[in-house]
Amino acid sequence: MNHDELIKALYDETLLGNAPRVLELTNTAIESGMGPDTILFDALIPSLEEVGARFERGDYFVPEMLIAGKAMSGALNILRPLLAETGAESIGTYVMGTVKGDVHDIGKNLVNIMLEGAGFTVIDIGVQAAPEKFIAAIREHKPDIVGMSAFLTTTMPMFKVNIHEITKAGLRDEVIIMVGGAPVTQEYADAVGADGYAADASTAVRLAKDLIKKRRNLVSV
Fold first, then answer.
1. 159 - beta bridge partners?
2. Which residues contact 168 (CB under 8 A, 6 or more apart)?
3. How far, in Å, CA of 203 to CA of 10, rounded?
4. Cβ–Cβ < 8 Å for 144, 178
5. What is the pTM (predicted TM-score) of this model?
6. Which residues are paired to 121 by β-bridges?
7. Distance (Å, rounded) from C-alpha 150 to C-alpha 181?
8. Domains in the chain and their CATH numbers?
């Protein structure tokens, strides 16, 4: 396979969620001398963006997004150390956790895969994450964004608790806060004082990029 054929095959197989083939093609591309940044930015990211677009159009559903995300995740495991060696710059750092009282992680994990695929450094603090855990992660990793996920209506009030505790710790102005999860709405996100809300993984990635860009533009003015 030549360069263009490899890029197209990686794009197509990621779109189909064919994890073994994506791994095989990633290794083939590296062996042929293709740079990890080329594989990521010319094949994998465009493919996952198309997955997101198909989801938004209703052509793809959560299972298709998950298998495509997992296929890409396998490739990222190979590319991550190689990208670090090349000094590839991260778009930003994103701390992500499911709030205290909630053990659901499928949505969170899908968002994480898509964020990482888009070029973010993702710090996953897991499920049942108490306010103290978010605060510790902010202090340790100095993220651009903190993402909070809730799947249950009974755990959604933890958004407000977390934001209150982050504010009390003097860290609120240092981070963008995004919330999401099946029962969450834009109105609820506004009510608890979040900076952003996303209904699905592809929207989360787009919004995260927009929010970081806006903040950096404000800082540079």
1. none
2. none
3. 23
4. no
5. 0.75
6. 93
7. 5
8. 3-86 (1.10.1240.10), 93-220 (3.40.50.280)
* Residue 151 token pair: 């799947």
| Single-letter amino acid code for the residue at 132 | E
**pLDDT for 221:** 58
Q: Mean pLDDT for each 10-residue chunk of the chain (221 residues)? A: 95 96 96 92 87 86 85 88 77 96 86 84 96 98 97 95 98 97 94 95 90 87 58
**Is 124 within 8 Å of 97 (Cβ atoms)?**
yes
Sort strands 196-197 and 145-149 into parallel, antiparallel or unpaired.
unpaired
Tell me which long-range contacts 196-201 makes (C-beta under 8 A, separation of at least 24).
198/111, 200/52, 200/55, 200/56, 201/52, 201/55, 201/65, 201/69, 201/107, 201/110, 201/111, 201/113, 201/114
